[in-house]
Design brief:
Blueprint lengths: L2 H13 L2 H8 L3 H15 L4 E2 L6 E2 L1 H27 L6 E6 L4 H15 L4 E6 L2 H9 L5 E5 L6 E16 L9 E2 L8 E5 L5 H11 L5 E6 L2 H9 L5 E4 H4 L7 E6 L5 E9 L6 H14 L1
Helix pairs in contact: 1-2, 1-3, 1-4, 2-3
């Protein structure tokens, strides 16, 4: 069983098809199909159900996919550790950051990191926190930034913890309050982020604790658009206080939620027990240094 074949199989699953995987691993579609067939023949089991559209894994396919991700990640750990022994200090850092707050939190780290380690190339991927967790688990990212809580598969380093603010029009009946409880917002239309953003479960879980299911009027991945929708009267939005304070817009106010647990807690994550390259350690050390 070759690691190259496992990598192709993982690419087919992760990218949802043979043609998409071929673009990712830089081989032809027929080569991808042949590699998956060879893997199935070697194992004596079907890994993909070809009677249904898309990529539907069999029971054996799910087992092989999970194990293959682990093996490929361990291979990357091995190569990184050997590079360390050889004294390599150039290399590459694969880093995943969420769209929310990256400009405020991570731009200063990028600038300082580039100045201190000019020979290290940083490959940046932007996704919602839950997607980043998947990519770190699969070994496709060495470091990611995600919101707590997350599962025990990760080691982590704290970045920041900020309370959540509700964003509403300044003519809203609650706009003169210093703090607002979620129970006071049960009759409002909510404007949330797209699915995959880890901020959503924090808000929805808080609403359940407050005893109601919110009416979601709209979703977006763009902070400025959410603020504009609030200004247009479509509903109310939610942002970490740090981000809300940077999105000052005439006619819109942000007020901190007073409910316990309504906190935007960001951390850098990596696979628990996984090997960290010099580039990753340097990033974490610099981030801690700048945080003070």
């Amino acid at each position: 069983m070759e690691l190259r074949t496992l990598r192709i199989f993982v690419a087919v699953v992760r990218h949802g098809g043979f043609s998409q995987a071929a673009k990712h691993v830089f081989v032809t579609q027929s080569a991808v199909s042949k590699a998956v067939r060879q893997l199935e023949d070697e194992l004596g089991l079907a890994l993909i159900d070809r009677q249904v559209p898309g990529v539907q894994l069999t029971d054996a396919g799910r087992v092989v996919f999970a194990r293959a991700q682990q093996l490929l990640a361990q291979r990357d750990d091995l190569m990184n550790e050997l590079d360390e022994l050889k004294g390599v200090r150039r290399g590459q850092l694969t880093l995943g950051l969420p769209p929310i707050g990256s400009d405020a939190l991570f731009a200063p780290i990028f600038a300082a990191y580039r100045a201190r380690y000019p020979e290290i190339e940083v490959s940046l991927f932007e996704h919602g926190s839950r997607k980043l967790e998947e990519l770190v688990t699969a070994g496709e990212l060495e470091l990611g930034a995600s919101l707590l809580p997350f599962n025990g598969a990760f080691d982590w380093q704290d970045v920041i913890a900020e309370p959540l603010d509700v964003i509403l029009r300044d003519d809203h009946p609650l706009s003169d309050q210093e703090k607002i409880g979620l129970s006071e917002l049960s009759g409002e239309a909510f404007i949330l982020f797209d699915s995959g953003f880890a901020l959503n479960p924090i808000i929805l879980d808080g609403c359940r604790e407050a005893g109601f299911q919110p009416n979601v009027a709209a979703r977006s991945s763009q902070i400025n658009f959410i603020v504009e929708l609030v200004h247009a009267g479509l509903g109310i939005g939610f942002l970490p206080r740090l981000i809300a304070s940077q999105r000052v817009r005439p006619g819109v106010r942000h007020i901190t939620l007073k409910d316990q647990g309504m906190v935007w807690h960001m951390a850098f994550i990596w696979r628990r027990g996984g090997y960290l390259s010099f580039a990753a350690k340097a990033w974490l050390d610099l981030a801690a240094e700048l945080r003070g």
